[in-house]
């Protein structure tokens, strides 16, 4: 079995050791990682970390529990057909010697974290699909630990009954906390299932037609997150500022068609003060182009949730860029030492009009 050694080139990375691994349901794996020197990784419920593979690829996974002293980090990982890391995990499931082997991680990242309710009677809705249940579990634990009194409802979407691999945990929580309700939802016609059917966002909209006094968290595929945002805001009156999301793709990659696109020049000021001009492909995001040059991590793949693509724009070029949307603005403000010229490179689409764009890559911690 190939050892996944740290690549040794990612800023802020640390080494962790495999503590436990087991299969979850039909196509997911639980991976627990311990920090060998015993120091804790400080994170907020709902955040994620990046695991760096020796081939240079990065995979992002959310912690599946709120932080607990001395506990290993736990992740729920959907197995992807022909995925590099998925194959490694499948091999690891059958390798008794895998425990104790090391991996390299960086983070934490993400701002889909627990937010105080405006009123103690306000409700909380948690929407998750598949292994998107992991960050929602951490958020739920955080909400209950903070003795949230308003109703909390968790909708977990799956394709078949055995996708709900930790349903017993939520059912036990529901017995202990009167304000918590767990609603598993199957989105196929599987005849073995006798419970709710449909999509999680539809279930929430049907159950709660008025969400004007609610916080909503959605974790899962970009399609589910985008549909939930649109539906709950327009149909149920949810305040857009109270919709918190972590959308994730199975993996991140650079579009193949970028290689044949016209080339643009981007003038860079690097963190050490040096200057450089790079030729990048039009039609991609600035983050993808700079990541291809090895100048940026782009941990979340452009989902506006990590901040690892923060840049500073040159004043003369700022007016040529479309303004940041609400989510980008919120993430930039949540990063450390925010500045007015900050932007997310993943939200800048490279068009021929941006030939000669001048930016700086800051050396500021996230
Ligand atoms: S790549 Fe994560 S916010 Fe831009």
TrEMBL record:
<protein>
    <submittedName>
        <fullName>CDP-4-dehydro-6-deoxyglucose reductase</fullName>
    </submittedName>
</protein>
<dbReference type="GO" id="GO:0008218">
    <property type="term" value="P:bioluminescence"/>
</dbReference>
<feature type="domain" description="2Fe-2S ferredoxin-type">
    <location>
        <begin position="264"/>
        <end position="365"/>
    </location>
</feature>
<dbReference type="InterPro" id="IPR012675">
    <property type="entry name" value="Beta-grasp_dom_sf"/>
</dbReference>
<dbReference type="InterPro" id="IPR039261">
    <property type="entry name" value="FNR_nucleotide-bd"/>
</dbReference>
<dbReference type="Pfam" id="PF00970">
    <property type="entry name" value="FAD_binding_6"/>
</dbReference>
<keyword id="KW-0455">Luminescence</keyword>
<feature type="domain" description="FAD-binding FR-type">
    <location>
        <begin position="11"/>
        <end position="115"/>
    </location>
</feature>
<dbReference type="InterPro" id="IPR001433">
    <property type="entry name" value="OxRdtase_FAD/NAD-bd"/>
</dbReference>
<dbReference type="Pfam" id="PF00111">
    <property type="entry name" value="Fer2"/>
</dbReference>
<dbReference type="Pfam" id="PF00175">
    <property type="entry name" value="NAD_binding_1"/>
</dbReference>
<dbReference type="InterPro" id="IPR017927">
    <property type="entry name" value="FAD-bd_FR_type"/>
</dbReference>
<keyword id="KW-0560">Oxidoreductase</keyword>
<dbReference type="InterPro" id="IPR050415">
    <property type="entry name" value="MRET"/>
</dbReference>
<dbReference type="InterPro" id="IPR001041">
    <property type="entry name" value="2Fe-2S_ferredoxin-type"/>
</dbReference>
<dbReference type="GO" id="GO:0051536">
    <property type="term" value="F:iron-sulfur cluster binding"/>
</dbReference>
<dbReference type="InterPro" id="IPR001709">
    <property type="entry name" value="Flavoprot_Pyr_Nucl_cyt_Rdtase"/>
</dbReference>
<dbReference type="GO" id="GO:0016491">
    <property type="term" value="F:oxidoreductase activity"/>
</dbReference>
<dbReference type="InterPro" id="IPR017938">
    <property type="entry name" value="Riboflavin_synthase-like_b-brl"/>
</dbReference>
<dbReference type="InterPro" id="IPR008333">
    <property type="entry name" value="Cbr1-like_FAD-bd_dom"/>
</dbReference>
<comment type="similarity">
    <text>Belongs to the Fre/LuxG FAD/NAD(P) flavoprotein oxidoreductase family.</text>
</comment>
<dbReference type="InterPro" id="IPR036010">
    <property type="entry name" value="2Fe-2S_ferredoxin-like_sf"/>
</dbReference>
């Amino acid at each position: 079995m190939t050892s996944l050694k740290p690549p040794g080139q990612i800023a802020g990375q640390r080494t962790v050791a495999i503590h436990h691994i087991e299969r979850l349901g039909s196509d997911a794996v639980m991976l627990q990682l311990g920090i060998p020197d015993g120091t804790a990784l400080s994170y907020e419920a709902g955040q994620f970390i990046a695991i760096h593979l020796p081939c240079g690829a990065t995979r992002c996974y959310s912690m599946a529990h709120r932080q607990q002293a001395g506990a290993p980090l736990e992740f729920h990982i959907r197995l992807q057909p022909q995925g590099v890391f998925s194959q490694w995990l499948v091999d690891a499931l059958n390798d008794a010697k895998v425990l104790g082997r090391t991996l390299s991680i960086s983070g934490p990242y993400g701002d889909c974290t627990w937010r105080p309710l405006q009123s103690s009677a306000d409700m909380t809705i948690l929407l998750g699909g598949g292994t998107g249940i992991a960050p929602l579990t951490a958020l739920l634990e955080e909400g209950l630990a903070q003795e949230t009194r308003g109703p909390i409802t968790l909708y977990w979407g799956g394709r078949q009954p055995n996708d709900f691999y930790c349903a017993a945990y939520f059912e036990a929580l529901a017995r202990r906390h009167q304000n918590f309700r767990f609603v598993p939802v199957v989105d196929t016609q599987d005849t073995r299932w006798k419970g709710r059917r449909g999509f999680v966002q539809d279930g929430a909209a049907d159950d709660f037609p008025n969400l004007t006094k609610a916080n909503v968290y959605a974790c899962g595929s970009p399609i589910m997150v985008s549909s939930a945002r649109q539906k709950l805001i327009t149909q149920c009156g949810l305040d857009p500022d109270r919709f918190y999301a972590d959308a994730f793709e199975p993996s991140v990659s650079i579009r193949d068609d970028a290689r044949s696109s016209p080339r643009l020049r981007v003038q860079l000021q690097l963190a050490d003060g040096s200057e450089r001009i790079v030729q990048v492909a039009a039609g991609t995001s600035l983050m993808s182009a700079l990541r291809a040059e090895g100048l940026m991590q782009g941990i979340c793949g452009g989902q506006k949730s990590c901040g690892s693509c923060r840049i500073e724009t040159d004043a003369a070029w700022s007016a040529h860029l479309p303004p940041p949307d609400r989510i980008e603005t919120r993430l930039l403000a949540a990063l450390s030492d925010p500045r007015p010229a900050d932007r997310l490179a993943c939200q800048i689409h490279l068009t021929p009009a941006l030939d000669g764009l001048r930016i700086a890559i800051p050396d500021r911690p996230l």
